[in-house]
Amino acid sequence: MTRRTFTAADQLDFAALSGDFNPLHVDPVHARRLMFGAPAVHGVHTLLWCLDQWAAQTEGPFSLRSLKATFARPLRVDQAVEMTVRKDDGGKVRLLATSGADTIARIDFQWEASAPATTAVKAASFAAAAPVEHHAYDGLEGTLPLALDPPLAARLLPRLAARLAPEQVAAVLATTRLVGMESPGLHSVFSELDLTFTGAGADPIAWSVTQADTRFGLVVMELRSPSLEGEVRAFIRPAPRKQLSFAAARGLVPVDAFAGQRAVVVGGSRGLGEVAVKLLAAGGAEVMATYHQGAADAQSLVNEISAGGGAAASASLNVLDPGAAGDDLAGWAPTHLYYFATPFIATGPRGGFLQSLFETFSAYYVSGFTGTVNRFDGPQLKGVFSPSSVFVEDAPDTLIEYATAKAAGEYVADLLQKRRPELRVSRPRLPKMDTDQTATLGEGQDADPAPVILRELLDFARP
Fold this sequence. Notes:
Elements: E1 2-5, H1 8-18, H2 23-26, H3 28-31, H4 43-55, E2 62-71, E3 80-89, E4 92-99, E5 102-113, E6 141-144, H5 150-156, H6 158-163, H7 166-182, E7 188-197, E8 205-213, E9 218-225, E10 228-236, H8 246-252, E11 262-266, H9 271-282, E12 286-291, H10 295-307, E13 311-316, E14 336-339, H11 355-376, E15 383-385, E16 388-389, H12 400-419, E17 424-426, E18 429-430, H13 449-461
Parallel strand pairs: 11-12, 11-14, 12-13, 14-15, 15-17, 16-18
Antiparallel strand pairs: 1-3, 2-5, 2-7, 3-4, 4-5, 6-8, 7-10, 8-9, 9-10
Helix pairs in contact: 4-7, 8-9, 9-13, 11-12
């Protein structure tokens, strides 16, 4: 068994080697709004690393006869992964990549000893580029030229670079470039790879979409060249959710519904916090939206509200260290505090309880909430709004850690109300709604957040 942890620097190096610069893999700020909540390691990077580790146990040059891989779960950057050899029967091998109890990738391949490679592959790395964004997938086709940067390949995959036929390394790399940059492109998740190598050669690979099922978000592509044939399966990943516009918010809210409020909305740059910011500003509140990473999102939100006649500003705030807030919050004494801060809502093991995951949630919903209230407390503070979840009452089997931490957050909010009876403290249990956090593969959408949040905000504002 071998183990490693991929870093952000590893991601950028692999993007240059493969040509797959999809923001899911290389842009931490953009990736936080995607369905995994953080940058994910390229599936093909995990695959080739596993092959590279296996190659340490063999000698001499070799070539692949076939290669199948299923990418079962995402592997996040800075998350440890282990490679285990499950079967090594002569020329047939099965490898497993795991992280904790999760299977990340299953890899099956056949190989054979071969003479040193003589096929010339274009020696080049790839410059950063933007992936293609498609709105329809039927009929898509193209070609994938092969290229390989020998020094970069030797640094990232030393054994494969030295011993596996370079055209085969380049061909496998080309599959992630196809999925991440061409088809599906921008909104993609690599699912499966199935290649059969029929000979030597560095000819471009022709690809074409043979199936596109938007009900399940599935795209199937056929690959063919004089030296290989095969199939790649990928999913169409949901795009970041767009919440209601400020103009739409103004059409929903009485103009003076929140007049007189000087509101801090923690976690206000996206999701439910973004909805609350727009509704509060539309109702006449002066709003400060805080963000942790999304400075550009927050500024765009402020610009939209300001252009529409509302009063809004933004500032950086890390709820795990609220005392370190910058100058933008100096002197900002709110009358109302709205707490929407949350980590990525990761699922736990089915039928189990992952203590580290519970602690991650609790850092936001318990200690982060308490520290943020203390940061903004003062004689001017009249109300604290910290939404909980209906999952406290009936949690899915894989959200026990989340629900337990939310229940603890409710207890802390109730304790605040008991100790500070002059404050109005609200912790409504909200239903599952349509945000980046709830995005899933395939069709389907959760409830619109705007009417739900507006109802709770109006109730909170009543005397």
